[in-house]
Amino acid sequence: MEKTVTKTAKSVEEAISLAIEELGVAEEDAVIEVVEDGSSKGFLGIGKKSATVRVTADVSETDESDVEEEDTTYYGDDESFEGDAISEAEEEAVNFVAEILSGIGIHGKLDSYREEDTVFISVTGQDCGAAIGRHGETLDAISYLTSLVANKNSEEHIRVSLDIGGYKKRREEIVISLAKKAAARVLHTGSPIAMEAMNPSERRIVHFALQSFGGVSTHSEGEEPERRVIVSPAGKEQTEV
């Protein structure tokens, strides 16, 4: 089974080593393409650009299973990742994220895969706070720009899901916990509760989490960036993001 991985590191050699290790093959058995050699300046001329390589090799089903069990950097269901050839949209998105992060001095491991119309990109490394920002605002901005890059030459609309340092996964767990606590309080008091202001993606998480929570309904009120979810006793409001 043919598999392609893209890795970003401080040098070409380090990026190749990461890719070879994940694929579980010898370097001579892989096809290596240097996407960025790291010799030029980074985003807007700030800092040294990271090296990015794309490595393709034939891996057995057993080896593939072993790699998936050890890898903790993918988020969501990556079953459709097996054997998928990297698309132009995914390549451009990954390269753009690598350039942005190198420009602000963040170096780490960058992984990506495509599932239907969504490109998932995850970045792991130290000192990722500068790319996340207050309440994830910088991460949201980078995600938006990456989406524009991915769709620039794509005939179909591509959605980009970017997570840096596991922030989105942790934040989702927090939002779900807050939503359930608010719902429990509404059931106890019988009065609506306004949750903290959230961005559209977090509000969708709340609406989805409380769909199966009996006795409450949700809708949103206010203008961005102060728009927030209102949790009410069931039957009073319709769900609105």
CATH superfamily of the largest domain: K homology (KH) domain
Report the radius of gyration as a whole number of Å: 21 Å
- What is the strand tally? 9
| Basic shape | elongated
Low-confidence stretches: 41-47, 62-83
Strand composition percent: 25-35%
The quaternary state of the protein chains shown equals single chain
Largest sheet composition: 3 strands, antiparallel
Mean pLDDT: 80
Describe this entry's structure for a reader.
The protein has two domains: 2-165, K homology (KH) domain (GMP Synthetase, Chain A, domain 3); 171-233, 2-Layer Sandwich (Ribosomal Protein S8, Chain: A, domain 1). 37% of the residues lie in helices and 25% in strands. The chain has helices spanning 12-23, 61-70, 88-103, 129-132, 137-151, 167-189, 200-209; strands spanning 2-9, 31-36, 51-58, 108-115, 118-125, 159-164, 193-197, 216-221, 228-233. The strands form three sheets. It has a three-stranded antiparallel beta sheet with strand order 1-3-2, with helices on both faces. A three-stranded mixed beta sheet has the order 4-5-6. Strands 7-9-8 form a three-stranded antiparallel beta sheet. α3 runs antiparallel to α5.
